[in-house]
């Protein structure tokens, strides 16, 4: 799933290519991806892209005051084309194309989604706050207003595992499954640790690591073409998606805990005092 660094990089990519161009046409191939009807998607035609921004994991194109807001979900992506095919696209089948945006110079981009579980969402609104997911977002960890006291206030009294808390978009915007694994590994903290039990020193460490991890990922993604961002993200991850491999810090084997629709990865030596975390799903398989 694209998270804060990748969406920020996509926003920067589009600022350099789409801003200043008018929307010539929008093809909605997967009608289920379009979540709004007023204004209609045709309202964007003829208007000019004046800015591109990010709200958590939401990508926002300002088109003369009308906003095209996208959430790429688990398997969605933005694919830029210098020359967009003009022929109509037939919906249905295994076509991953959901929405195609044509700009006035012949360039544009596709919003695509792989797999059968569809979650990509596209909104056409007058104000990004009209998108429920945007309105409910917690503070952005790269915003200057996100201070140590902000994080301390978020964690205080919460009897919730820190891994789940970091992923909750209503608590902190933009961090998902991958970067929460990376943050907790860098902070040398168990993903099962209860948020309210963190000491002042641990909160301060976590605060510094959140900023460093996300800013480093944003820096590594800066200037890359949209098509190269996924590969860059994977290369930069130290523990997420690397179960069975050696921890780059201590050399221990990276372990995994599986859930119904996701999994987390961690290093026992770095994060849990050498003790593997309980993986009930795997335990059932081994019986």
UniProtKB/TrEMBL annotation:
Q: Which GO terms describe its biological process?
A: base-excision repair
Q: Could you tell me what reaction this enzyme catalyses? A: Hydrolysis of DNA containing ring-opened 7-methylguanine residues, releasing 2,6-diamino-4-hydroxy-5-(N-methyl)formamidopyrimidine
Q: SUPFAM superfamilies from the xrefs?
A: Glucocorticoid receptor-like (DNA-binding domain) (SSF57716), N-terminal domain of MutM-like DNA repair proteins (SSF81624), S13-like H2TH domain (SSF46946)
Q: Name one GO molecular function term.
A: DNA-(apurinic or apyrimidinic site) endonuclease activity
Q: Which residues form the Formamidopyrimidine-DNA glycosylase catalytic domain?
A: 2-93
- The superkingdom of the source organism is Bacteria
What range(s) does the FPG-type domain occupy? 238-272
Print the keywords alphabetically. Answer: DNA damage, DNA repair, DNA-binding, Glycosidase, Hydrolase, Lyase, Metal-binding, Multifunctional enzyme, Zinc, Zinc-finger
What is the name of this protein? Formamidopyrimidine-DNA glycosylase
